[in-house]
Amino acid sequence: MKLLIDDANLDEIRRLYDLYPIDGVTTNPSILSKTGRNPFEVLREIRAFIGKEADFHAQVIAKDAAGMIEDAHAIVKELGEGTYVKIPCVPEGFKAMKSLKKEGILTTGTTIYTSMQAYLAAKSGASYTAPYINRIDNMGYDGIRVAKEIQDIFEMHGMETQILAASFKNSQQVLELCKYGIGASTVAPAVLDGFVNNIAITGAIDVFVNDFEKINGEGATMSTAKK
Ligand code: G3P
User: Fold this and answer.
1) How far is the CA of 166 from the centre of ligand 1 (A)?
2) SS3 for the chain, per residue?
3) Which residue among 42, 170, 178, 213 has its CA within the 20 to 30 Å range from the CA of 132?
4) Residue nearest atom 10 of ligand 1, based on CA coordinates
């Protein structure tokens, strides 16, 4: 499963890239607006940092197909041909996806709350489909079940489209999809840090270090211990 960062704060992106095996970055208009800056400036900085080979998803704003296609052209022009253009899975969005597919522009069907939205996005040529796990849960439905159902549909019909699961509130939700063979998940920095934020882990490491220091002195490590 690919692991992406769902954020536009470059300091956070740099920190997480430094620590973890990250495959790319996703943004949406709300995430970009939190930076309080020009969206293209921010997006270009992220692209420059992650490199042109990394997965990068940026969303259109226009609500009609013609406008979405123009937004897609602007995104690809500024951020590179390998950029995935996120398009909401609504009727005009499917129209835009079909057209962009013919142009060879990569798309990600987003704002997915139902499996049939993903099915239509896949048939319209989207490379990824993004079900909103936590937002579905918050509506009283089961986001994990929706994502698994989408995966089953893609497999059953031999569709090449992958899932880019989004909107997570905890690592358990990501784990459930990891176990199910989902293609990619995009997670907020706090959720990603939460994968290993566990006192049992840090406690075990502290015991190892304390035991080592008993024999080798405070602050000693393998590189500094007497050879
Ligand atoms: O980008 C879409 C998705 O990641 C939104 O997540 O946390 O705002 O529900 P969230």
Assistant:
1) 6
2) CEEEEECCCHHHHHHHHHHCCCCEEECCHHHHHCCCCCHHHHHHHHHHHHCCCCEEEEECCCCCHHHHHHHHHHHHHHHCCCCEEEEECCHHHHHHHHHHHHHCCCEEEEEECCHHHHHHHHHCCCCEEEEEHHHHHHCCCCHHHHHHHHHHHHHHCCCCCEEEEECCCCHHHHHHHHHCCCCEEEECHHHHHHCCCCHHHHHHHHHHHHHHHHHHCCCCCCCCCCC
3) 42
4) 167
